[in-house]
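Message: Study each token:
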Amino acid sequence: MIRDKLREAIERKYREDIRKLSIYWPSETITLLELAMGKKNIRLYSNDIHEFDDRDIKLILEITPRYFWLLMRVPLMLRYKRESDGTAKYIVEGGIWQMRLAELMVRGQVSSSGLKELDVSQFSKLISRFKSLVFITLEG
């Protein structure tokens, strides 16, 4: 009984913390074309502004074919999930073009299916190259 109440309290606190963090989640995304045309920031749910780093912008535009600029959007949003066996994975939020963007950012190439989820090494590579273009949330 005490164990159940403790578990409920911990889970309630966890959900509340996730809710508080969600105000720092992007309320909008922009196309790579908009990025190339000089729009360098987005609004968060907190009404704060997040500005993309010039180096990240330059790199993503260099590696992405121009004919994808209208289809791919930033920031790339990922959801962290820990599996029951303890392994971590990062799930790409959004549709097929976001999965293709993730693959382009990690592997430097695009396939028809893209990347639906990233392992820790892929995530590390992604975040080391594109710090300001990626947002991560916890599974809630």
Summary: The mean pLDDT is 90. The chain is about 40% helix and 20% strand. The radius of gyration is 17 Å. The helical segments are 2-21, 32-36, 54-63, 96-107, 120-129.
